[in-house]
Design brief:
Distance between the termini: 32 Å
Radius of gyration: 20 Å
Number of helices: 9
Order of helices and strands: EEEEEHEHEHHEHHEEEHEHEH
Shape: globular
Strand content: 25-35%
CATH class of the largest domain: Alpha Beta
Mean pLDDT: 89
Number of domains: 2
Number of strands: 13
CATH superfamily of the largest domain: Gcn5-related N-acetyltransferase (GNAT)
């Protein structure tokens, strides 16, 4: 097939695209509006001048002052959006990935593609572009089972949720900008910052509030105790099908006996179930075969784990070669 691919850096330049993907959507540009060290872009594949697929990516600069390629990374999350049935999806993805690599090759240190779910999807395209993979676990809860979310929890999780309720922990939905400011100050103090994965700035959450929450495409729930915020969760909502856990946290050291993180996640899952969503998706949750930590924690909410991959391409050939030998 003859495909034409085009790269867009501005939302207003995009053609009309159906809303079939939370992550590869026209509105995704709005998340990065007015943030100088994020550069969003979308690659669209056309067939006979009609969009057949789109791939959204963003370039992140980890240093606010230095702007060399070594301080920039490019991220892609989830499979591309495909706008027609019976498409050669693997072939089209190959074109999308080739175009992305040409676009960012000299601009970023590495490219990371994550949350694909399917460990086989795009395998040939990734190998053709010299990507290497790291095995990960994807965790997703089905909300369509006969067993309700509550009945899928482990016994310890049920006890912890009940204890939190008895001690007066409660949930409020974030609905105003004033609450958003307080909310961000709290998470800014309690999130472990990593050099390679900068936590989004306040403007990102302001954009999420304006472009997603106000359009019923997302929610932020605050977990409170004695009128103090002790936890919270940000979820993306897509067409009553998928609820995505984007960020969650809690003051687990200060309020250890109140189980803020556990109560927060349980409430968000119960909300998605009540509203008729089909899945609650934690997405990539840890390394394959990891027996402790985040993966084990999430699995106690009753979800199923699936093997998947994260794909990486370092734009320094010899480093990419060594990394490929180590991980592959």
């Amino acid at each position: 097939m003859n495909y034409k691919l085009k790269v867009y850096y501005k939302k207003e330049d995009l053609p009309y695209l159906d809303d079939i993907s939370f992550f590869h959507n026209t509105n995704t540009f709005d998340l990065y509006k007015d943030i100088t060290y994020y550069t969003p872009l979308m690659i669209i594949c056309f067939e006979n001048d009609e969009p057949t697929a789109s791939l959204f990516a963003h370039i992140m600069r980890i240093n606010k002052i230095l702007d060399a390629a070594v301080f920039r990374r490019c991220y892609v999350s989830q499979k591309p959006a495909f706008y027609k049935s019976d498409l050669a999806e693997e072939e089209i993805f190959g074109h999308l990935l080739n175009t992305l690599m040409k676009e960012v090759k000299s601009r970023v240190l590495y490219v990371e593609v994550r949350n694909l779910g399917d460990p086989i999807f795009g395998y040939k395209a990734f190998r053709d572009n010299s990507f290497f993979s790291i095995k990960w676990i994807n965790i997703k809860n089905s909300l369509q089972r006969k067993r309700k979310i509550w009945n899928q929890l482990s016994r310890s999780r049920k006890n912890q949720v009940n204890k939190a309720k008895r001690k007066g922990v409660y949930i409020e939905e974030l609905t105003t900008n004033d609450e958003l400011v307080a909310f961000y100050k709290m998470i800014d103090k309690n999130i472990s910052w990593k050099f390679s994965h900068r936590f989004p700035p306040y403007t990102y959450f302001q954009n999420f509030f304006d472009s997603f929450i106000l359009q019923n495409k997302g929610k932020i729930f605050l977990t409170k105790y004695q009128e103090k915020v002790i936890g919270g969760i940000v979820i993306g909502l897509h067409q009553n099908k998928n609820a995505y856990s984007l960020y969650y946290w809690g003051k687990t050291k200060t309020y250890k006996t109140l189980y803020p993180t556990i109560y927060t996640i349980w409430y968000a899952m119960s909300y998605a179930e009540e509203k008729g969503f089909k899945f609650f998706d934690f997405m990539d949750s840890g390394y394959l075969h990891e027996k402790a930590g985040k993966t084990r924690f999430i699995l106690q909410f009753g979800g199923k784990q699936h093997a998947t991959r994260r794909w990486y391409k370092i734009n320094w050939g010899w480093i990419n070669f060594i990394a490929s030998k180590i991980y592959d």
